[in-house]
Amino acid sequence: MRRNLKRIVYGAFFGLILVLPLLSRNEYVLFVMNKALLNIIVASGLVFLTGFAGQISLGQVGFVAIGAYTSGLVTARLGMPIPIGIVAGIALSVIVGLVVAIPSFKLKAFFLSLVTIAFGQIIYLLLVNLTAVTGGSQGLFNIPPMKLSGTPFTNTLYYYLFLVLVALVILLMYRLKYSYIGRQMFAVNDDDVAAEACAINSRKTKVFAFGLSAGLAGLSGALTAHMVGFLTPDPFTFFDSANFVAMAVVGGLRQLSGGVVGGFALTWLPELLRLKISGFENYYLLVNSVIVLLVLVFLPSGLGASLSKGLSRLWGEKQGAVTLHNSKSKEGE
To answer: 11-46 in b/e burial notation, b at 16+ Cβ within 10 A?
Structure first.
C-alpha cells in the first residue's frame, strides 16, 4: 500500500513539474520559475564544492558574471552562434576557476573565503569600469535570445530547456558522488593529510571541484544572458554570492537535493513575501532574512535532509545514512 502511495506521490510531483508551464498563463511566474532553475544550477555547484570537497566560495557570482558576459559578447558583438557563446562562457569560467583554485588550494575556512570574496569584487569592478567591453553601468544590450525554427524562445521553452539541464546536473553529481572521484572528495573533506597518506592527490581533487562548480556557475550565467537579453553589473554583487551560498546551506550541503531545494525555496521566498500591505515593501527582505536564519538554527542539516527524513517516515522506511559522508565525527566519539 505504501509502495503504491509512494509511486503515486512521486508520479504526481514529476507530472506537475512537467505540466506547470501549461497550467500558468502568468509570464512573470514562468520567469521566476526559470530564474529558480538557473539558481539551482549554481547552488548545486556549491553543494558539490562545499559539501563534497569541503571548499568555500563566497565569490561564485563572479563565475556567473564571466559566463554571462562572455556569451553575451561573443554573440552580440562577434555575431557567433549562441551555442558557441555558451560554450565559451563555460570554458572561460572553468579556466578562471582553475586560476583562482590553484594558488589557494592550501587555504581553508576564513582565508579561502577572503580570497573568493576578493575575486568576486574584482570581477564586479571590472564589469563597472571596462565600459568599452562590458558597457559599464549602462549595460550590455542586444544579446540574442535562443530560437527554435527562427522563432525566439518563450518562457515555456526556456523552462523545459532549463529543466532538462537541471536534471543532467543532478545526474552528473549523482554519478560523481558514487564514483572514485566522490570518495576521494569525501576523504579530502574529512582529513586532507590522511587522504594524502592514502595516495589521494588533494590538490587535484580540490581544483577539480572548484573548476566544475565554476563551470556550472558559468553555464547559469550564459543562459541568463540569453533569456533576459541584456546585462548590467547590478546582479553580480557580493550580496548575490551570499544568496547562492544561502541556497546551498538552506537546502543542505550534504544532500544531492540541497541545491534543488535551496535554490527553489530562496528564489520564491522573496516573491511570496511581496504582500500587498502598506509599508511592508520596506521590510519583506528583512523578513526573508529572518526566515532563512530560523531555518539554519532549527534545521541545521537543511531543508533537503528534513524533507528526506519526512518522506522516509511517510513511506515507513528506516532512516539510514541518507546524508552524504559526515565531515567530522562528533566530539567524544
So the answer is: eeeeeeeeeebeeeeeeebbebbbbbbbbbbbbbbb
Q: Residue 294 CB: number of other CB atoms within 10 A?
A: 10
Grid cell listed for 102? 590553484
What does the longest C-alpha to C-alpha distance in the chain come to? Answer: 65
Secondary structure in 3-state letters for 272-306: HCCCCCCCHHHCHHHHHHHHHHHHHHHCCCCHHHH
Instruction: Write out the DSSP string of 32-68.
Output: HHHHHHHHHHHHHHHIIIIIIT----S-HHHHHHHHH
Predicted TM-score (pTM) above 0.85: yes
Q: Is 267 helix (H, G, I), strand (E, B) or coil?
A: helix
State the sign of the Cα–Cα–Cα–Cα dihedral 245, 100, 67, 176: negative
The pLDDT, as a whole number, for residue 326 is: 44
Q: Which three cell numbers stand for residue 164?
A: 532538462
Supply 190's cell numbers.
Answer: 574529512
Phi, psi at 35, each rounded to 5°: -65, -40
**What is the structure's pLDDT at 105?**
66
Q: Which of 319, 12, 323, 23 is nearest to 177 (CA)?
A: 323
Domain extent listing, the chain: 16-236
Question: In this structure, what C-alpha cell is assigned to residue 113?
Answer: 573565503
Q: Which of 185, 245, 207, 253 is nearest to 97 (CA)?
A: 207
DSSP 137: G
Written as nine digits, the cell of 294 is 530560523
Q: Hey, what's the cell of 47?
A: 553543494
Place of cell 581553508: 108
User: In 10 A of CB 298, how many CB atoms?
Assistant: 8
Mean pLDDT per 10-residue section of the chain, whose length is 333 residues: 73 86 86 96 94 89 97 96 97 94 71 88 96 93 92 94 96 91 85 82 87 96 96 94 94 89 94 82 83 90 84 65 42 40
Determine contact, residues 246/292, Cβ cutoff 8 Å: yes
Q: Give dist(CA 258, CA 32) in Å, integer.
A: 19
Distances from the Cα of 122 to the Cα of 83, 110, 167, 207, 236, angstroms = 27, 18, 32, 21, 11
